[in-house]
Amino acid sequence: MMEKEIKIQTKHLWFYYHGRTILENIQVEIEKNVITSLIGPSGQGKSTFLMTLNRLWENIDGARAKGSVDINFGNGFEDIYTVPVSRLRRQVGMVFQVPNPLPMSIFKNVAFPLRLMGEKDQIRIAQKVRDALERTFLWGEVKDRLSEDARTLSGGQQQRLCMARALILEPQVLLLDEPTSSLDETSGRVIEDLLLDLKRTCTIVLVSHYMDQVKRIADNGLVLTDRQLKQH
Amino acid sequence: MPFKEKLARSLFFLAAVLSAAVTLAVLGFMIALSLPVLKKAALWDILSAPWSPDHGQFGILAMIVGTLCIALFSLCISFPLSLGCALFIEVTRPGGPGKVLKKIVQLMTAIPTVIYGFVGVFLLVPIVREIFVYGSGMSILSASLMLGLLISPTMILFFSQSFARVPQSDLNAVDALGGNTVQKLWYVMLPHAWRGILTGIILSFGRAMGDTLIALMISGNSIALPSSVLDSARTLTAHIALIIAADFDSIEFKILFICGITLYGMTSCGILLARGLDRKPR
Amino acid sequence: MTNAFWDKLLALFSWACALLLVGAVSVIIGFLVVKGYQTIHLELIFSTTRPLDALLFKQQVFDGLFPAMVGTLFLVVLSMGFALPVGLASGIFLAEYAPPRVKWIFSLLFDVLAGIPSIVVGLFGFSITIFLHHSFSDRIFPCLLISSLSLSFLVLPYIIRTTQISLESLPLQVRLTAPCLGATKLENIFLVLLPSSLSGIVSGIVLAIGRCAEDTAVIMLTGAVATAGVPRSIFSSFEALPFYVYYMASEYADPLELTKGYGAALILLILCAGLFVVAYAIKTRLTLKTPYRF
User: Fold this and answer.
1) Which of A115, A231, C95, C257 is the one with CA 20 to 30 A from C164?
2) Average pLDDT, stretch C261-274?
3) B195: Cβ–Cβ under 8 A, 6 or more apart, which residues?
4) Which chain C residues are within 8 Å of B180, Cβ to Cβ?
5) Is the ipTM of this complex over 0.90?
6) What is the per-residue pLDDT across C161-170, written as a single tens digit (0 to 9) for each?
7) C41 in helix, strand or coil?
8) What residues does each domain of chain B span?
9) Number of structural domains, chain C?
């Protein structure tokens, strides 16, 4: 039997929004290369918890976090507040509930993170875009319309596009905030299959409010109630 | 933070400071340039005396009265008209005809002021002259009518916006109790929308006071105190436009800056009031 | 029964107001069209000069609207050239960087600036000219440069406001998309936020252009004159369409000049209405193409 390996650990993590306490003294460990689900009543801070893992809360007015989050990127645990924020967020990808393609073409959407990193080599960009789209089972559907506006895609396609965009940087951790809740059943299942495939290389934290979805694909579970996060 | 980010941030900040400085610079210039006059004559004398440069009198009372008269009359004309149109857009015909009216009103905001003045001179003034058989037709009435038309889009759009914000559930409650539209208006819509309505009135009043072309072209520009709406009058704005050609060093010219401050002060007060009202209740 | 009576009365009142307003506007526009449409042909604009010569500035046009139209064009281009970069940058600062208190103060100042009557802005421009005239060079007079600077003060608050509001109304998810992928604040603003709010900003800019083109009070104090020909430099006085219309209304010498006034008024009206329609089209078309479902 394989030894459990921990990827992310939080210590004394507190979170406040406009002075209100949202998360209270969270201490959890998240296992490497499995799907950890996060469930709990809506509006209690599940998305907030994800945002403490990639420091995205720093971009939101009135949010404040304290305590520590450590992630093992391969060289032992590192405090995420000592890692430069853009490097951290390239290693910790995030996908939201509602697909958020940028107002540009399909190709440019997926290539956007590479552009941010200053990648100039067009051949390598094209190759990586293709890889990312293939990983999300989208290549076959969009290969003839890469220059079309990304917002012409269907909801499920848009969500897979957003996943491809997050995956093109080859992140070690992927944070997913109810990625299927705005999609129909079939598109949702495609995403689930994709996640099962992804966990070979990625540590996935999945916020979900579908119990059956959690049962189908999650290996571990976290429950958020009354500002506390418990492993179960 | 990398250098580029810091540089951009400072540039944006600089631009904002520059823009804000314009507001203060306008005020500063007006004050600095009117100080020499204020040293020679008391402010009260300037505000209360008649304008008669040949007799050494440089009072702007007639212009202040003219400005207020024309702005007030145009408001009196425009307010009921705008209220009716806003009701048409939001309450009585919210479907097709209301939408068409709203488009027309929005398009009205694009009509240049000088066009209103031009049509006023050649169409409205002769009509007023014929109907009332009094003077040249260039009068407070003519100017107010045109100005009323100029400011009504501002008011209509403000009014209909505030009517549209009244919660549908409150309206349904009145309907459920069998109330009629007038009761709905009186008991639900006005209590909800009065702030927006008042804001619209204040801003349009400011617009009416600040307008130059209509008053300049069709109010007749007489420097006497008006005694009826058919009298000709001169506004502060028109006064500035008419006297500007005078010698830079003359008192007449320096008085213009007092007119400028007065206008600046009156419109800024309006803006402050409107902002105070616009703040969310609760 | 009384219910129906009151409802009918209200309907009657609102119909009357709507018809009155539409009627008044139609009369104004109709009057101009009826009186002016016959004058609108090339001769009104170019007089006896060959249009091509005039367009290439080879020959001055006398007695035509061409210099006034060119003057208005120069005014618009110059004042937008001043106002756009500063206005956009200020709008970005207010929306993305300013802390609440700073934002409050700045937006108060911009609201006041937006409320200042244009004649007062003109007076300000004029007094700057005098100031420069006295302290630097006595060859500085009211001119195209001063006019366009003053006009840019006039439209600055509009550009700032539309930029700020367009940026602020972007949904949170759009704001967070790029930072999630490691973008810095500046990259987020230029690569995502500005392109996403482009429709609002552009239509605001077009409306600001309309204000530059129609304003008369500012330019009559800062350098517009009745006859100047096509301006030779930014330091010369100039003609402009709205000023021409104003001038013709008060100083026309004979019926022929007056008909030219009607023609000019009609052209100005078409120009401003056209700009408005363009702004509207940009707003609706780009908004329709952006079906964010948040």
Assistant:
1) A115
2) 90
3) B162, B277, B278, B281
4) 2-4, 6-7
5) no
6) 999 999 998 8
7) coil
8) 3-40, 48-278
9) 1
Q: Which domains can be identified in chain A, with CATH numbers?
A: 6-231 (3.40.50.300)
Chain C residues touching residue A90 (CB < 8 angstroms): 181-182
C117 Ramachandran zone, left/alpha/beta (phi>0; psi -120 to 50):
beta
B229, two tokens: 């709406």
Query: Which of C175, C182, C293 has the CB atom closest to A98's CB atom?
Result: C293
pLDDT > 90 fraction of chain C, expressed in percent and rounded: 35
A112 touches chain C (CB under 8 A): yes
Cα–Cα distance for residue pair B143/C168, rounded to 1 Å: 40
Domain B48-278 sits in which CATH superfamily? Answer: MetI-like (1.10.3720.10)
C3 part of a folded domain: no
pLDDT at B280: 54
What strands lie across the sheet with A173-177, from one edge to the other?
A92-95, A173-177, A203-207, A35-39, A220-225, A228-231
Q: Do A56 and C180 touch (CB under 8 A)?
A: yes
User: In the 8-state DSSP scheme, what is residue B78?
Assistant: H
What is the per-residue burial (b if ≥16 Cβ within 10 Å, else e) of B137-156? bbbbbbbbbbbbbbbbbbbb
In a domain, C252, yes or no: yes
Beta carbons of C247 and C219 less than 8 angstroms apart: no
CATH code (residue C209) = 1.10.3720.10
In angstroms, the first-to-last Cα distance of chain C is 46
CA distance B255 to B237: 12
Chain C contact set for A85 (CB, 8 A): 182
Residue A187 and residue B166: Cα distance in Å, rounded?
A: 39
Cα–Cα dist C147/B111, whole Å: 21
| Contact (CB<8Å) A100/C184 | no
* Contact between B92 and C184 using a beta-carbon 8 Å cutoff: no
DSSP string, B196-233: HHHHHHHHHHHHHHH--HHHHHHSB---SPP-STTS-B
* pLDDT interval class at C286 (50, 70, 90): low
Structure tokens at C145: 């440069």
* Residue A231 host element (H or E): strand A228-231
Instruction: Give the whole-angstrom CA distance, residue A19 versus residue A23.
Output: 12
Instruction: Please give the structure tokens belonging to residue A144.
Output: 């003839």
Q: Is A59 on the interface with C (CB under 8 A)?
A: yes
Å between A94 CA and nearest CA of chain C: 6
Cβ-contact C190, C89 below 8 angstroms: no
8 Å CB contact of B275 and C108: yes
The reply to whether C182 falls in a domain is yes
Which residues neighbour B102 within 8 Å (Cβ) at sequence distance 6 or greater? B89, B160
Task: Tell me the whole-structure pTM to 2 decimals.
Answer: 0.87
Looking up tokens 């479907």, which residue turns up? B95
Helix/strand/coil for C232? coil
Contact A31, A61 (CB under 8 A): no
Chain C nearest CA to B56, separation (Å): 23
Structural domain includes residue C1:
no
Q: What is the pLDDT along chain B (282 residues), one digit of tens a residue?
A: 678 889 999 999 999 999 999 999 999 988 888 888 877 777 777 777 778 777 777 788 888 889 999 999 999 999 999 999 998 988 887 778 888 898 899 888 889 999 999 999 999 988 988 888 777 888 889 999 999 999 999 999 989 888 888 888 888 888 888 777 788 888 888 888 888 888 889 989 999 999 999 999 998 888 888 888 888 888 989 988 888 766 677 778 888 888 899 899 999 998 998 888 876 543
Distance separating the N- and C-terminal Cα atoms of chain B: 39
